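To illustrate the input format used throughout this study, we show a single complete record. The first block contains the structure-token representation of the backbone; no residue identities are included at this stage. The design step must infer an amino acid for every position from geometry alone.
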């Protein structure tokens, strides 16, 4: 009788061990993704895609299995109070899910969710505008040993090297920065502005800042910007307008200048040049970090996202700046072609 009981128990144990380890030698990896913005956001979407694609590549080779859940905070379209309520409910959902890893995209998700869970889980984050060292100063009591981030930092060296070699150096002494008023500026805009000013100061490039709160103010100050000036645009959204409409209005009103932005999407709307991290590339780097952790290897706690330039050839043609289009040494695998309005410089 005792033997009849033991044999089924042994069979059940063997079955459990086999099913537990059939996926790449381990239990399925449980991942909870928290995105700061909406599913269609032009910053979050490519990062998430890059992350999932990297995991997919690894799965094909190792047959590793994943169980993934995702939550979009939609933080740009809700109030701070609504965000707080949403985060509180999300914490309960995450605890019930029992994740192995928390993955955050952009600063809001990292600050509101990731930092709070770092004592319990591995936390990986991409698209972080505020450097990790600054987070450590702001939140000194967090367990940063469990945190791994891909920083979204503006690197202007490639841009200025191209401009110095292609245009008169004097042009760089007619630099304008368009920024929003302090009371309406969001955190991402503030970080971009701080990074830009730091880079310009380090390069000893003179600049003038112009502050606006509306498109009407932009139209007024545009009268005083020289035609041959470089204009850096740091505004992402103005009051009463969507982010996309804000960028479209800024682009159309400053179309007579070399307009420089910090998102590749802006060139599709009409900006002349965009210097940006690769959102998709950041997502893939984050995927690599998670894969290393899952294999008991130690990734770097912080890496900088890959950067590139996007040139709007049609817009530069209109401005008579053909010399910016023909600098093929900056083009990686793509030939400068007038039929293309956009091409990337890695």
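Output of the design step:
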């Amino acid at each position: 009788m005792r033997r009849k009981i033991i044999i089924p128990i042994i069979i059940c144990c063997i079955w459990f061990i086999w099913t537990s380890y059939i996926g790449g030698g381990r239990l399925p990896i449980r991942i909870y993704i928290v995105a700061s913005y909406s599913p269609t956001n032009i910053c979050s979407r490519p990062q998430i895609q890059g992350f999932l694609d990297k995991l997919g590549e690894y799965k094909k080779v190792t047959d590793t299995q994943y169980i993934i859940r995702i939550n979009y905070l939609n933080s740009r379209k809700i109030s701070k109070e609504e965000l707080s309520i949403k985060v509180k409910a999300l914490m309960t959902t995450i605890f019930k899910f029992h994740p192995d890893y928390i993955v955050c995209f952009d600063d809001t998700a990292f600050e509101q969710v990731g930092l709070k869970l770092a004592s319990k889980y591995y936390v990986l984050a991409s698209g972080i505008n505020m450097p990790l060292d600054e987070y450590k100063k702001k939140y000194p009591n967090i367990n940063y040993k469990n945190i791994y981030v891909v920083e979204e930092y503006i690197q202007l060296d490639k841009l200025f090297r191209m401009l110095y070699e292609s245009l008169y150096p004097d042009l760089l002494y007619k630099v304008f920065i368009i920024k929003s008023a302090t009371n309406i500026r969001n955190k991402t805009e503030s970080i971009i502005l701080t990074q830009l000013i730091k880079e310009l100061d380090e390069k000893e490039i003179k600049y003038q800042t112009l502050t606006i709160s509306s498109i009407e103010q932009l139209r007024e100050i545009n009268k005083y910007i020289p035609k041959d000036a470089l204009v850096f645009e740091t505004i992402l959204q103005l009051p009463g307008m969507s982010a996309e409409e804000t960028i479209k209005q800024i682009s159309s009103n400053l179309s007579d200048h070399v307009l420089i932005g910090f998102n590749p999407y802006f060139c599709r709307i009409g900006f002349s040049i965009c210097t940006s991290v690769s959102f998709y590339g950041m997502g893939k780097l984050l995927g690599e970090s998670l894969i290393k952790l899952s294999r008991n290897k130690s990734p770097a706690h912080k890496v900088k996202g890959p950067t590139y330039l996007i040139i709007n050839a049609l817009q530069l043609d209109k401005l008579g700046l053909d010399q910016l289009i023909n600098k093929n040494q900056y083009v990686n695998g793509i030939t400068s072609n007038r039929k293309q309005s956009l091409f990337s410089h890695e």
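Structural context for interpreting the output: Residues 24 and 89 are 33 Å apart (CA to CA). The first helix runs from residue 2 to 21.
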